[in-house]
Amino acid sequence: xxxxxxxxxxxxxxxxxxxxxxxxxxxxxxxxxxxxxxxxxxxxxxxxxxxxxxxxxxxxxxxxxxxxxxxxxxxxxxxxxxxxxxxxxxxxxxxxxxxxxxxxxxxxxxxxxxxxxxxxxxxxxxxxxxxxxxxxxxxxxxxxxxxxxxxxxxxxxxxxxxxxxxxxxxxxxxxxxxxxxxxxxxxxxxxxxxxxxxxxxxxxxxxxxxxxxxxxxxxxxxxxxxxxxxxxx
Length: 233
Fold this sequence. Notes:
- This protein is of the alpha/beta class.
- The chain has two domains: 3-96 and 190-204, Nucleotidyltransferase, domain 5, CATH 3.30.420.40; 97-184, Nucleotidyltransferase, domain 5.
- Helices cover 28% and strands 28% of the residues.
- The chain is built from six helices and ten strands.
- Strands 3-2-1-4-5 form a five-stranded mixed β-sheet, sandwiched between helices. The protein has a five-stranded mixed β-sheet with strand order 8-7-6-9-10, with helices on both faces.
- A hairpin with a 2-residue loop joins strand 2 and strand 3.
- The longest helix has 18 residues, at 70-87.
- 42% of the residues are buried.
């Protein structure tokens, strides 16, 4: 059982939470992808103060490991590593898509649990990071980068109802919603709150990362855009 700080910065949402024994104590979050670096430290301080805790009270730090935004993941993991090193506490990593699915299963308890659940994170244009889980949060298909068209996920849609959600689901709705087994859950975003039970499970199992070697799960290599100066090309 532990007091764990939770950091989620894999998408446009910056979210920090504090949990004790898997139960949420305090939460701060904002959906503004341009301010993660400024907000993480502030939110860390605020959730601890709200709970009447200090950094030395922490037993572990958990971070959303990806896939997701390259910059967002770097900020979250760097912050988590800093806490792990500075406080000599274990570092726990949480699969970002699994965390999102956990939140949906908790929020929509009446949803058909014989169905499959597909969290989606935007990876530009019609490409998404996605995975498939069942109603017990067991992985059916591992994380992949998919280019979505009308034939995508046919092997799953042919057999089960599939619920799509996340910040990339709506852009896929036009091509996927034609299938009678495709359903979409709107207004679902990542939150550090969804990491609480997952982090507690790993804490009990001592499933910790090597803080010196741990890197985010980017899934794809980062490609920086090249500026073109007028007149040179």
